[in-house]
Amino acid sequence: MKTTINEVNKFVGQDVTIGAWVANKRSSGKIAFLQLRDGTGFIQGVVVKTDVPEEVFQKAKSLTQETSIYVTGTVQEDSRSSFGYELLVKDVEVIHEAHDFPITPKEHGTEFLMDHRHLWLRSRRQHAVMKIRNEIIRATYEFFNDNGFTKIDPPILTGSAPEGTTELFHTKYFDEDAYLSQSGQLYMEASAMALGKVFSFGPTFRAEKSKTRRHLIEFWMIEPEMAFYQHEDSLKVQEEYVAHIVQSVLKNCKLELERLGRDTSKLEQVKAPFPRIEYDDALKLLHEKGFNDIEWGDDFGAPHETAIAESFDKPVFITNYPTSLKPFYMQPHPERPEVVLCADLIAPEGYGEIIGGSERIYDYELMKKRIEEHGLGIDAYQWYLELSQYGAVPHSGFGLGLERTVAWISGVEHVRETIPFPRLLNRLYP
């Protein structure tokens, strides 16, 4: 019976064949222990000399790291391992013998591992992070599909910048200028006017010359947009969504979280509703914590976000930022025009902002004024302005950065481990 490692629990006491790679191996005079992986998981194969032909035992003892094999054996329960099962090996067929695999069980430097990212992905740690990433993606589709959202794919090549930044990757689009998208938001707003509640999931690009552990040049965003939703409505969706993906990972990735040494007690507290603190009060809190160099109108950096998050045991919304700090499309507070109806969701444990969202401006004259104030050019945004001309409604949306969210939930320090092939300031390889 051919099967995979994640399915062996169905075949306890039966013989199965698994296509696998040898992740590691150790042997004594009479027993060889094979650490096997097949992409779905890891299992230990035990080869007992007295139970197999001499040829099979010697073959097992000589297997090298990352050699690919077909291994046949009996599935048995193993209470000593977190996986719970092992394979009592009866036969080994070598598919391809690997020699001098660059990444050995010893310690390697980060740059070396990044140069060999295509091989580093095979490790237990990276396997666990990618499985958690996959679960977050699965739970994302589940949440939005179950809540009446329609998936929309905005373009990656655009003719303008949604947030008016100069940190864009420029390219030629035949005889026109084009840019790699930094956000699908404006297109999602247009889609919401057609379909009510929509979400996108796709790559975005920021030409920021940043080397922090929170930044990537290319990353993935989940961007919902909702017609007839005001700011408060959007906040409820955000906290329910984040709680859903966290609880889904806790339920479906127990082995991966354990492998990463994640303290799950902190994740178990992540349930809606989330605490909220206004920008003004966050500023006071920072002053109390000794950050006296920051004034009203200044943006919060990573140390500030971490200090604010330390006061809460769940993700926390920082609301009502100064208008000057935020993009042109955010709706002014009805009683305080100097701030906008927005929120950043700050993850606990120093992982920083994982969501930025707001209610959007839907008044035509105000939107036109804001575009002009930001020096963006009316012509490039004429199509977007038309959303405020034809059946304008209150609407809100947000964007969640996938890699920062994966880093927080999995407990890894740097976002470069949370995407299969990271693009960093000085890295376009492999």
From TrEMBL:
InterPro entries: Aa-tRNA-synt_II, aa-tRNA-synth_II, aa-tRNA-synth_II/BPL/LPL, Asn-tRNA-ligase, Asp/Asn-tRNA-synth_IIb, NA-bd_OB-fold, NA-bd_OB_tRNA
Molecular function in Gene Ontology: asparagine-tRNA ligase activity; ATP binding; catalytic activity, acting on a protein; nucleic acid binding; transferase activity
Keyword Disulfide bond: no
Record localization: Cytoplasm
PANTHER family linked: ASPARAGINE--TRNA LIGASE, MITOCHONDRIAL-RELATED, ASPARTYL/LYSYL-TRNA SYNTHETASE
UniProt record similarity statement: Belongs to the class-II aminoacyl-tRNA synthetase family.
NCBIfam families cross-referenced by the UniProt entry: asnS (TIGR00457), PRK03932.1 (NF003037), PRK05159.1 (NF003483)
Subunit relationships: Homodimer.
Listed name of the protein: Asparagine--tRNA ligase
Organism classification: Bacteria, Bacillati, Bacillota, Bacilli, Bacillales
Gene behind the chain: asnC
